[in-house]
Amino acid sequence: MEPEFSPAAETAPVASARVQRSNIWRLAIAQALAGANSVVAYATGAIVGSALAPSPILATLPLTIFVLGMALCTLPAGAIAGRYGRRAAFLSGAGAGVLAGLTAVVAVYVGGVTGFWLFCLSTFFGGAYAAVVLSFRFAAADAVAPERKAQALSLVMAGGVAAGVVGPQLVNWTMDLLPQPMFAATFYAQAAVAALSAVILLGVRLPKPTAQAQKGGRPLSLIVKQPRFIAAATCGAISYTLMNFLMTAAPLAMHMHGHSTASSNLGLQWHVIAMFAPSFFTGKLIARFGAERVMMVGLVLIGLSAAVGLGGMQVVHFWWTLILLGLGWNFGFLGASALVLECHSEAEKTRVQSANDFIVFGLMALGSFASGGILSAYGWSTVLWASFPPLAITVVALAVLQSRTKPAADATESAA
Asked: Is the pTM of the predicted complex or chain greater than 0.85?
């Protein structure tokens, strides 16, 4: 059997400590600003969609288009980064973010059916921006020593903590600045935040792709067959899909069981904090215990969150479900992202990373479609029970990874 690729065989250029720190800080701040941009989309999407849609059944279509934009634009974003460099992809994404805000402004001024479809276009631009932002975590690992890659990736994701604070406040501060049309000032601010992100990203210094890197590397079809990649993509996809699946349904489920909007908003706030706050130390855990173990802990926490939800329908059950779900997502998704870094060479990185994100967010889009329908038809308990089969599949994938890689590692140690 052909041995699996090991990144240890290839040494990438390492930037100075000052450049590494600058890159991580800039990417983390840009992550926070872009996260706030996404919060605007989620906070306003259904409300504006309901006001403009020609039919009530289309009210949530703008949010669906946002998720589709994320899934469909991951591969093009990777192609731009592979040909022109990551900064070109970053600036293209920020440009899409500016278009998202400005197109939304036009949509609410135009109104009616035309305004609705313009608003759907704006959320697609927002999804394209979010797709590019996904690569920030991988970009942080560029030009960093191998032993610090997981920590760099994790620290950039920690920018999401600020997004959880800045995003809602951005909506609160601007929603009433212009009384008519609705959220016009918010969408102007959305465009301005994306433009500010572009300015910050101009200072990111990452190596540009060489001609050899653009043409080199193994075929993608061979790379994605690696047990390590299969486990990483499966865990990343399931962690993100279940997080979105349960998080989307939880506020409506709380409303259905008589709980206040304030209670659901507080639960979501702590959920977002739980998603990103552990990022300050998740990278260190990955470096010490390995990506596979951290991923397994994440899956266990997601399973525990569903089990807590099945324990009752009181506010405290929903809150702990959301908090444990956020923690599980952090360990599962960041562990999977770190494992992806072990699946490719420098020449292959943008293709492999964008393929991974395409799988993750393509599956998340399907989960987003299913969540509301299952909740409406079968109830919150069924939504929670539906989480367990995907978790079991992912645990099996991790077990296969360990069984395939341990003999290879033992053989390497014996040879040494």
From this structure: no
